[in-house]
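// run 5 | inverse folding | seed 20
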């Protein structure tokens, strides 16, 4: 199957043949080969001529042997009005005589019809090639015609440095005719002492940068020299375009020079020209590629084809400003180009006025620069700035010398300095040397590890010498080659630090309490148990059995009391924990009679793993204690927390508010601290506990305000 070529430009083909079935077949194969082909058919020469008067075609395919007029007759008529239109004689009459006559009469090619599909692929390929060459030739001819008619001296050199084109003004400037210069090397027009400068300085600059402008010394045919203002620019084909003028005529020709200087500078950018009525008279290939319309569609149209009404009106106002006596020579403004297909393209329009004399305004020219990426970066910057301001945290950036290049409103408010005072100042205005050194060490670490962010604590010293403890989230500014500075986000952690110290003091007091309980209660209890054992060895008494039971209960109470004190400590080491996995692991830790566990959650939460396990074990043990060995225990989750429920006897509504109190128990065997410990662990995490009823009527303990990940 032939490869279908995708193109933005339709190729219009006129096929002339007295057999409609054959023209239909040809159209089918051509479009299958290339979907850019648009095929029109005619059964006779007269019909084809009528089509030519109505429509512009890119190529003609014609049979040879047709009634009334042959394909050669048709070719002769076409060549009178369309000397350069590609014309392919595609005929079943194959002979060297016909082929020779066709080529002699001006046919572009001769191709014999065939039975297979290969001949159509060959035909399609030749059509594309001839049409592309024809368009390129017409474009070059238009450009050469514009250069020829220009009053500015212009020449074109090939890659061997020989003149392949000069206009009349260029030849006359040096005292030669146009034919005398064609084929000559550029050295002909320079004194010997000037040639090394051109070879070693000017041409390397042109080849590396695509453009050079400066003064050189020109050599005329009569041997005289003059200072010339010289512009040299490269073309896409490797040629050099040279614009020259006599520097002594600067005042008279300045405006004309600027016109061509602007055009030559913009050879790789979209360029357009408008006549006095605001209609396109010229667009280059880059402009055509930008907007997606065919050149023929653009020429003669107004900018409204590719611009919205507001941009058209803006351009008209700028043109009026340029035409005023005090107006600038050129203006730059932004426009939104709407191409034929695709999204809008944002451009800078560099607009200038064509030189004219008196009141006869001749038109304007413009060069478009695509700034779509820049506009997107500007929008991104605006979004980032909005996010930074909305965050409420102080944000700043420093250059590689540690000086402020940006600070947001929150940063100004925290430091007490005006923005103007901070910008350009060293970071030492708000930081002590010890914190600055820590920041440098962090930066070195990031550079060495190719990291982007890290955090350290520091103090901000305000204008009033107040010290604010902050957490500084420090990052490296993105740069492809080398370190270019940092950005920092400050967060006031004074309250958090104070709370941390208070929690540390609280935990210390709890540690002291648990130490006293563990030592001062367990020691006399151990002595009492030892004395009891000695008494039991000496005599039997039911009173001693009661004492032993009391000792065991005291030991259980002390153990639960210690657990309660430990679990009341604030949680500081949080991690990501799989709730279902921890629940499954601790089901078997309650007792041999663990009930029937059902894990119905896959949530990940932030918690202290060991304390979470203690909480779940206490809830499981409580369910088994009150519901028996066959009780079913379910662990699940809801919107902002998780629950543990059973299908046991439940907790009466009148007692639900009391069961979380330390020491409360409905069992004679229990200590009453089990659910109290659950409450302590939950509150240490910042969670809340609620006692309610399960769907089966059993107990349901809900833990809320849990952070899911």
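// decoded
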């Amino acid at each position: 199957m032939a490869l279908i070529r995708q193109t933005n430009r339709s190729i219009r083909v006129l096929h002339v043949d007295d057999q409609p079935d054959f023209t239909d077949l040809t159209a089918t194969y051509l479009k299958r080969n290339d979907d850019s082909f648009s095929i029109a058919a005619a059964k006779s020469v007269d019909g084809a001529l009528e089509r030519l008067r109505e429509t512009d075609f890119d190529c003609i395919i014609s049979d040879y042997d047709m009634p009334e007029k042959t394909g050669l007759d048709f070719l002769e008529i076409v060549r009178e009005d369309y000397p350069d239109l590609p014309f392919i004689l595609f005929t079943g009459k194959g002979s060297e005589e016909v082929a020779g006559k066709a080529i002699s009469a001006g046919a572009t090619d001769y191709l014999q019809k065939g039975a297979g599909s290969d001949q159509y692929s060959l035909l399609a390929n030749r059509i594309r090639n001839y049409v592309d060459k024809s368009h390129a030739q017409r474009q070059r001819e238009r450009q050469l015609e514009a250069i020829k008619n220009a009053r500015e001296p212009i020449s074109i050199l090939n890659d061997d440095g020989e003149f392949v084109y000069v206009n009349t003004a260029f030849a006359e400037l040096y005292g030669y005719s146009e034919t005398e210069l064609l084929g000559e090397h550029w050295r002909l027009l320079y004194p010997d002492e000037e040639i090394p400068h051109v070879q070693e300085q000017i041409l390397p600059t042109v080849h590396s940068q695509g453009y050079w402008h400066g003064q050189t010394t020109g050599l005329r045919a009569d041997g005289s020299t003059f200072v010339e203002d010289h512009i040299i620019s490269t073309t896409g084909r490797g040629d050099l375009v040279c614009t020259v003028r006599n520097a002594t005529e600067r005042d008279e020709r300045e405006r004309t020079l600027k016109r061509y200087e602007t055009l030559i500078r913009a050879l790789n950018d979209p360029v357009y020209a408008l006549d006095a009525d605001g209609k396109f008279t010229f667009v280059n290939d880059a402009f055509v590629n930008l907007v997606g319309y065919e050149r023929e569609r653009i020429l003669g149209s107004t900018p409204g084809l590719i611009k919205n009404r507001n941009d058209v009106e803006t351009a008209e106002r700028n043109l009026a400003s340029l035409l005023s006596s005090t107006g600038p020579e050129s203006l730059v403004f932004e426009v939104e180009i709407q191409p034929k297909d695709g999204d809008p393209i944002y451009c800078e329009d560099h607009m200038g006025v064509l030189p004219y004399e008196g009141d006869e305004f001749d038109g304007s020219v413009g060069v478009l620069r695509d700034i779509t990426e820049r506009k997107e970066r500007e929008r991104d910057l605006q979004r980032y700035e909005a996010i930074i301001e909305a965050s409420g945290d102080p944000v700043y950036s420093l250059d590689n010398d540690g000086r402020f290049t940006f600070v947001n409103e929150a940063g100004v408010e925290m430091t007490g300095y005006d923005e103007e005072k901070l910008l350009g100042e060293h970071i030492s205005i708000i930081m002590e040397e010890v914190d600055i050194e820590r920041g440098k060490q962090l930066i070195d670490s990031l550079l060495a590890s190719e990291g982007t962010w890290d955090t350290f604590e520091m103090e901000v010293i305000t204008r009033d010498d107040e010290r604010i403890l902050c957490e500084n989230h420090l990052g490296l500014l993105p740069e492809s080659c080398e370190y270019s500075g940092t950005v920092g986000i400050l967060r006031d952690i004074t309250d958090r630090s104070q709370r941390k110290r208070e929690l540390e003091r609280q935990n210390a007091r709890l540690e002291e309490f648990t130490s006293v309980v563990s030592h001062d209660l367990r020691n006399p209890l151990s002595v009492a148990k030892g004395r009891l054992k000695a008494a039991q060895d000496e005599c039997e008494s039911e009173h001693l059995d009661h004492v032993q039971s009391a000792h065991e209960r005291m030991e259980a109470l002390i153990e639960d009391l210690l657990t309660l004190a430990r679990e009341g400590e604030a949680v500081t080491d949080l991690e990501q924990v799989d709730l279902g996995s921890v629940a499954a692991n601790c089901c078997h830790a309650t007792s041999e009679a663990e009930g029937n566990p059902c894990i119905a959650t896959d949530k990940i939460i932030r918690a202290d793993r060991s304390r979470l396990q203690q909480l779940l074990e206490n809830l499981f043990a409580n369910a088994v204690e009150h519901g028996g060995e066959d009780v079913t225990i379910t662990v699940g989750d809801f919107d902002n927390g998780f629950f543990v429920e059973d299908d046991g006897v439940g907790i009466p509504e009148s007692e639900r508010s009391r069961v979380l109190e330390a020491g409360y128990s409905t069992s004679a065997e229990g200590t009453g601290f089990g659910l109290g410990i659950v409450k302590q662990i939950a509150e240490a995490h910042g969670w809340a506990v609620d006692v309610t009823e399960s769907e089966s009527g059993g107990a349901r303990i809900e833990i809320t305000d849990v952070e899911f990940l």
